Amino acid sequence: MAALTANAPGAAITMAAATGGGDTAAGGPGSGGWDTAYLLINVGTTATTVTVDGVAQPAMTSQSMLVPLRRQTGAPINITYSQVTGVTVALVKPLTAYTSYGT
């Protein structure tokens, strides 16, 4: 599995080709209705199902999807694909450390 490099919100996003064996992305805290890490998925003309942290997302063809990556500890989240032809992904997350409140 390849680790996705974070792209800062508000900056140009660099998409990466999906890896056949899957990818990992660092999650971010989600509280109070706000999320801090997202997976941006672009799928070409071949139907693709993306599974994020064990949860299959709806199958997509020629579409994009933004999936929140909730992980209070920032631990890696596993991402797998039913196929990778024409699939690109990006991790959108602040590049600086954040303070996690609560216990």
Record the SSE blueprint.
Elements: E1 2-3, E2 6-7, E3 16-17, E4 23-26, E5 30-31, E6 34-35, E7 38-43, E8 50-52, E9 55-56, E10 63-68, E11 76-81, E12 87-92
Parallel strand pairs: 1-4, 2-12
Antiparallel strand pairs: 3-12, 4-11, 5-6, 7-10, 7-12, 8-9, 8-11
How many E strands? Answer: 12
Number of helices: 0
Shape: globular
How do the SSEs run, as a string of H and E? EEEEEEEEEEEE
Quickly give the structural class: mainly beta
* Sheet having the most strands: 5 strands, mixed
Compute the average pLDDT: 87
Task: Estimate percent helicity.
Answer: under 10%
Please tell me the total number of domains.
1
Poorly predicted runs of 5 or more residues: 99-103
SS strand fraction? 35-45%
Strand order of the largest sheet: 1-4-11-8-9
- Give me the Rg, rounded: 13 Å
The rounded distance between the terminal residues' Cα atoms is 30 Å
